[in-house]
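Fold this sequence, please.
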Amino acid sequence: MDLNLSGKKALICGSSDGIGKAAAEEIARMGAQVTLLARNREKLEKVKASLSTAHDQEHQVLVADFDDLVSLEFELNAHLQKGNDYNILVNNSGGPPAGPAHKAELEEYVVAFRRHLMANQILAKALIGGMRKSGYGRIINVISTSVKAPLPNLGVSNTIRGAVANWSKTLSRELGPDGITVNNVLPGATETLRLTSIISNKAQKTGASEAEVAKEMTAEIPLARFAQPEEVANAIAFLASPAAAYISGINVPVDGGRTPNL
């Protein structure tokens, strides 16, 4: 199975920690030159220093904030004008705050729409030309299992993730003739800062301990544990590889079997 990414270039969003960081590490081990994108330069530089260079790669850092789309587009275009074309785009950013859909303020939906769908659109639109030119393109969106079954108390997230999933499916049909694949990876409960925050908030609201909340959550997972970021990263890296050339327009849950439907 061909998993070699030597000579390929990957732009990986939200790569200062969590799933994005793990994806960057795995894709670099597979031989790609990685550009890390997030808003904290100090964290990105630390991740960059840890990435494999066994294939003589020169990894890069790109600092931008998904809450400022004008700045994101400006920084991205300036970066691309330096001759930085990409074969692989991993769209990944932190999810919206928890809460029921009917109680969310309109601005919460607007912020989430910008941070996820509109930022993804800016990135994809800018990178597609380089993918076409190179004859190799992979767009991988890290979203949520909520696109298959909405999750309780994540009303804004459920809504926006569904929009991103359908955007992705549409792109896969439009870009297929160019040999560009577009897929979604759907993490379940994964040991990241976001999961820690969700557990802490639920513990405060219910009066239960964080250990009790975590136990209740893992009881819903057939594999009876949370995922590690590296396990989600493995799915992302596979979809980025030559081995996944005929896989496009799909959702790949990495959730330990928790999602109740196919």
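The helical segments are 18-29, 41-50, 69-80, 106-134, 155-175, 193-206, 210-218, 229-240. The chain has a mean pLDDT of 96.
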